[in-house]
Amino acid sequence: MSHTFRLLISTACALALSGCGNPQVTSESDSDLTSLSADLLSELAPADWADAAAAFTGRDGAQNGYVVLTNAPGAGVLMRIDLKGLTEGWHGIHLHNVGDCSDIAEGFKASGGHVDPNDREHGLLNPNGFERADMPNIYAGPDGRATAEIYNDSVALFASEAAAAEAGPHPLIDEDGFAIVVHEAADDHKTQPIGGAGARVACAAISGE
Description:
Elements: E1 5-10, H1 30-44, E2 52-58, E3 63-71, E4 77-83, E5 89-91, E6 93-96, E7 138-140, E8 146-152, H2 161-167, E9 178-183, E10 200-206
Antiparallel strand pairs: 1-8, 2-3, 2-10, 3-4, 4-8, 5-7, 6-9, 9-10
């Protein structure tokens, strides 16, 4: 299976983009996200760029960042992330099966396991293959902030014939949605089941159809 990632990471305080507007927001708390996110979302994504967006929730229950996503032609999802409150260093980030980040005290277990319709092992460096959920780590600077742009060509937000041909018949936005989960430590891309990345420390939920 062909799998492409393009990753740009910066610890700058903001992304400088022009011609910006507000993407459609999809999350568990649309009203809160809409009221809090206008400026940051417009920095993350130009007008009409994003197909979905959500706030990250940290283990303290506070909204500490945002993610915007756009569906590439056919298969492939491009996402931009701006997240605070992390420890300095690399952090694993994965796609999870359920768009539910409500169980903060339990560590976001409601988001389920990794997106893995082909029942593969974990890890981009795994010689046996890897899950569609697997992505490069993101890096947080000394201020605990990570900004990143990640392209994952093995998934699609929406169902279509082109997406099914390239990424299989399992779009991310289905009845129960999906979540983007950030872990406390780096993913080594080999160790089962999550690359030794540790606890889930931030979660962004994209609601279902």
